[in-house]
């Protein structure tokens, strides 16, 4: 069955435009996305995107906040704030700062004149081709990318994307017809905590990101609660 799904996924990629620029244009009317973050079925925080436009530029601000508590005591805090800047649909700049329970991480990335990204990150400093997509998930062009760039540390994550099929899922009182994908690391030498293994659901009609799940010291879920 997965082989059949993957066949149709390949056909889907052939008929969709391959440029990441064209994918950004799908979101011309998007202003805000909010996700609730769950760990082991407990709501622990938020992930919010805000979209602003100025002439031919798109500014995407994102912020993640969550806390893990036990008996009312905060054991772990996580905060990320980042900004993506697109010009004529092309990513030209990205900056983020992360506080991972006291451990600082960052990314400063900019499109250079030679057509590649210059990355200064806490885990990687160097160049990356523009076929690599920033791993903020909202832009569905990530399903076509050979690798994603970590929005937290700048490291390059080479990936395999598997189309798992069409699914109808319910979030709150609303049902969505979705396309379900799995993203996994192709580098088998990575430590377990560095390996990518994330399931992501995109709305079949709008291609908006609506859900994600992964396992990492617990079961994590991102569930869409607002889109406008």
Task: Provide structural commentary.
- This protein has 228 residues and is mainly beta.
- It has 2 helices and 15 strands.
- The protein has one domain (2-227).
Q: Give the neighbour order of strands across the main sheet.
A: 8-7-6-5-4-3-2-1-15-14-13-12-11-10-9
> What percent of residues adopt helix (DSSP H or I)?
under 10%
Distance between the termini: 35 Å
SS elements, strand count: 15
Give the mean pLDDT: 90
CA-based shape: globular
Please report which band the strand proportion falls in: under 5%, 5-15%, 15-25%, 25-35%, 35-45% or over 45%.
over 45%
Biggest sheet features: 15 strands, mixed
Radius of gyration: 17 Å
Low-confidence stretches: 1-22
Structural class: mainly beta
Number of domains: 1
Q: How many helical elements?
A: 2
Q: Please write the string of helix (H) and strand (E) elements.
A: HHEEEEEEEEEEEEEEE
Concise synopsis of the structure shown:
The chain is mostly beta strands and 228 residues long. It contains two helices and 15 strands. The N and C termini lie far apart (35 Å).
Explain the layout of strands and helices.
Blueprint (H helix, E strand, L loop, with lengths): L1 H14 L4 H5 L7 E8 L2 E13 L2 E14 L2 E15 L2 E11 L2 E9 L5 E5 L3 E4 L4 E2 L12 E3 L6 E16 L2 E12 L11 E7 L5 E7 L3 E9 L1
Parallel strand pairs: 9-10
Antiparallel strand pairs: 1-2, 1-15, 2-3, 3-4, 4-5, 5-6, 6-7, 7-8, 10-11, 11-12, 12-13, 13-14, 14-15
Label this structure with key terms.
228 residues, mainly beta, 15-stranded mixed sheet, 2 helices, 59% strand, disordered N terminus
